[in-house]
Amino acid sequence: MADALRHRPSISWSDRFRLYRMILAARIRSDWQYRVSFLALLVSQVGAVGLDLVAIAVVLQLVPDLGGWTAAEVAFLYGLATLPFGISDVFVSTVDRVSNYVRDGSMDRVLLRPVPALLQISALEFELRRAGKLVPAIAALVWSLPRVDVSWTAGQIAVLVMALCCGTVIYSALWVMAASMSFWTISSKEALNAVTYGGQFANQYPLHIYRNWVRAVLGWGIPLAFVAYVPSTYILDATNPLGLPRWLVLTSVPVAGAAAAVAGLIWRTGIRHYQSTGS
Q: In angstroms, how far is the first alpha carbon of the chain from the final one?
């Protein structure tokens, strides 16, 4: 396998992404052949994620604010945390199925092709129905934007765009890092879901309402605080019991870059240590 990988043909990155787009298009056409099933699954995705927003609304009906944040501010935080997660879920999360490729030996075929394995698996397992998860996030942002007490400046708009981009990178890095464990473990699905879905659920609420150890793990260790909480405190100038400095939002870019670099390193290490099943 190692010799085959060294001698596989090399193609340009433009050709690699062209092949990636072709696989995506084929997957979409395939799903669209069963329109009723596709639409039903799409609606189910909207409903499943929308229940989180309903739960937040119920909590806010019982208390006047959540950790000093108003309903509009919490809805903004929810949208800013969920939209990047939804984007990464659509395009990257299916890499968690690499465990199936490793177990049945089909990873050999993936590695012999001149397209990066990460791009291949993400494209081969692409499911457009996952885009339904974007709907509640967009709805929360649209509802909250005119209701938050913000006089929008160019800096705040730039931070909003930066937060969406960096959040997508951080979530994507988490998917890749967790999925990479499949090269060393028999099954890492449960651990992957705990980090990704569990972390995203916790990220929908203001970080300061959690205990210190939760903040340390989910906020700074993983680090999900830079996805939504840190940008939200800057944009909204909301209650900030943790005393976070406003300049901290600028570190979102290097944090996202570091997360991507670590994810790439772990993935490449896993690829190098992959041993074929021999089947």
A: 12
Which contacts qualify for 13-21: CB closer than 8 Å, 24 or more apart? 16/114, 16/115, 16/116, 16/119, 17/119, 19/115, 20/115, 20/119, 20/120, 20/122, 20/123
268's tokens? 């490449």
Q: Which of 100, 83, 79 minimizes the C-alpha distance to 144?
A: 79
Q: Which amino acid is at 10?
A: S
pTM of the model: 0.88
Q: What is the pLDDT of residue 170?
A: 95
Q: Which of 194, 201, 248, 246 is nearest to 226 (CA)?
A: 248
C-alpha 41/C-alpha 122 separation (Å) is 19
pLDDT tens profile 182-223: 888 766 666 677 777 888 888 888 999 988 988 888 888 888
**How far is residue 20's CA from residue 29's CA, in Å, rounded to a whole number?**
14
In the three-class reduction of DSSP (H, G, I as helix; E, B as strand; rest coil), residue 69 is classed as strand
Query: Which pLDDT tens digit goes with each residue over 231-248?
Result: 999 999 888 899 899 999
Q: Judge whether 95 and 176 are in contact, CB under 8 Å.
A: yes
- HSE toward the beta carbon, residue 175, CA cutoff 13 A: 26
Q: How far apart are CA 193 and CA 213, in angstroms?
A: 20
Average pLDDT for residues 76-86, to the nearest whole number?
A: 92
- Cis-peptide into 114, omega within 30 deg: no
11 backbone φψ class: left, alpha, beta (φ>0; ψ -120 to 50): beta
- Structure-block tokens of residue 32: 């669209």
